[in-house]
Specification:
Elements (H helix, E strand, L loop, with lengths): L1 H7 L1 H5 L12 H7 L3 E13 L6 E23 L8 H8 E20 L8 E15 L5 E13 L9 E11 L5 E11 L2 E15 L2 E7 L2 E9 L2 E18 L2 E19 L4 E19 L3 E7 L2 E11 L4 H9 L2
C-alpha cells in the first residue's frame, strides 16, 4: 500500500510540467513542451465497480493547452579560449552561444466523473491554469529548464469556494545526440494543504536498432520502438492521478484519483506542424480518496479498468529549443 502511494502521489507535482498519463519525457516531447503549440487531449475510462462499496466509477475528460512565446534570445559569438588544449577544445570553448526563451501557457479542462457512492449520478469538474516556463543554455551546453503555474480545480458546485493551487519544476537536461538524453530536477506542488516536493530523474537510452529505454522516475518506465521517422510506439507502466475540489455531504472536500497502469502509446507526426496520438491503457490498481480537513482521508478502491485516449499537437511559431536541438546539441 505504501509503495503504491509513493508511486502515485508524485504525479500531482510532476503534472506542473507535463500532463499526467501515458506521456513521456523523451526528446520529442521535451522539445514540444517548450515550443509554441496547441495541444488537445481526450481520455475515457468506462464504468468499473468499487471494490468495497456499491456503485460504479467512470471518468471522461478533455483538455486544451496553449503555449506561446514571450521573450526569445539566440545569439552566437566567438571569443578565443587561450587556455584550450588542442584544436577540438579550442573550437568548442571559443564559440559562445547565448540562448534562452520565456513562454506562457494557459490550460483549460473538463471532466465528467461518476463516483456512484451518493445520490449525485455524475459530477462535473473543471480546471484552469496559467503559468510561465523557460529554458536557457548554460556555458557547459546543458539545458536549464523551469516552470511555475497557478491552478484552479473545482466541481461546478464548489466554484464559489475555489482554492488556488501552485506547482513548479526546475531541472537540467544533458542532450547527447538525437536518441540519448538525461535530465533531473525537483518538482514542487501545493494543492489545498497538500505539499509535495518530488525529486525526479529521467532520460532516453538506446537499446539497439530502433529500440530505446524511456524512463521518468518515479512515475514512468517504458520501451520505445520507432519503425520510421515520425512514428513511435511506446509500451510501459506509469502512475496517473488528479486532485480536485468536490462537494460531499454539504461541504467542500478534495477528491483524489490515483492509479498504476500499463499502456501502449502510438505517436505519429503527419507533418512539421501536426502530430496525433493514441493511447490504450489498463489500470492495474486504482482508488478514489476523499480528503477532509478535520476528518482525514476515506479511501475507496476501484476495480482494474481499461482506459483509452486520443490527442493532437499543433506546433507553430519559433522555438529556441528546436534550434538548440537541431544546430547546437545534436
Amino acid at each position: 500500500m505504501r509503495l503504491r502511494r509513493f508511486l502515485v502521489l508524485p504525479l500531482f507535482a510532476l503534472g506542473a510540467w507535463v500532463p499526467c498519463g501515458a506521456q513521456t519525457f523523451d526528446l520529442d516531447q521535451f522539445e514540444q513542451a517548450f515550443r509554441p503549440r496547441l495541444r488537445v487531449d481526450a481520455r475515457y475510462q468506462p464504468e468499473s465497480a468499487f471494490t468495497d462499496t456499491t456503485g460504479r466509477f467512470s471518468n471522461a475528460e478533455g483538455s486544451a493547452v496553449l503555449t506561446f512565446p514571450i521573450v526569445s534570445r539566440f545569439q552566437a559569438g566567438f571569443k578565443l579560449d587561450t587556455a584550450a588544449r588542442g584544436l577540438k577544445e579550442l573550437l568548442k570553448n571559443s564559440i559562445r552561444i547565448e540562448a534562452s526563451q520565456l513562454l506562457g501557457s494557459v490550460r483549460v479542462g473538463a471532466r465528467q466523473l461518476q463516483l456512484g457512492f451518493d445520490s449525485v449520478a455524475q459530477r462535473q469538474l473543471y480546471t484552469a491554469s496559467a503559468g510561465l516556463m523557460g529554458i536557457k543554455l548554460t556555458r557547459k551546453y546543458r539545458l536549464l529548464f523551469w516552470s511555475a503555474n497557478v491552478n484552479v480545480s473545482e466541481e461546478d458546485r464548489t466554484v464559489d469556494d475555489w482554492v488556488p493551487r501552485f506547482n513548479g519544476i526546475i531541472g537540467k537536461a544533458h542532450v547527447q545526440g538525437l536518441r540519448k538524453q538525461f535530465y533531473y530536477g525537483l518538482a514542487l506542488s501545493y494543492t489545498d494543504r497538500l505539499v509535495l516536493p518530488v525529486p525526479f530523474i529521467g532520460g532516453t537510452a538506446p537499446l539497439g536498432g530502433d529500440w530505446s529505454l524511456q524512463y521518468a522516475l518515479p512515475v514512468q518506465l517504458g520501451i520505445s520502438y520507432r519503425p520510421k521517422q515520425g512514428t513511435r510506439f511506446l509500451a510501459g507502466i506509469s502512475a496517473d492521478g488528479f486532485r480536485s475540489g468536490l462537494e460531499w455531504k454539504d461541504e467542500r472536500v478534495n477528491v483524489n484519483h490515483t492509479a498504476l497502469r500499463v499502456f501502449v502509446n502510438l505517436r505519429h507526426r503527419l507533418n512539421r506542424t501536426l502530430q496525433i496520438r493514441a493511447d490504450v491503457g489498463y489500470a492495474l490498481v486504482q482508488s478514489v480518496r476523499i480528503t477532509q480537513a478535520d476528518v482525514g482521508a476515506i479511501r475507496l478502491p476501484v476495480d482494474p479498468a481499461l482506459q483509452v485516449g486520443l490527442g493532437v499537437n499543433v506546433l507553430f511559431g519559433g522555438s529556441v529549443m528546436q534550434r538548440l536541438l537541431d544546430d547546437v546539441l545534436k
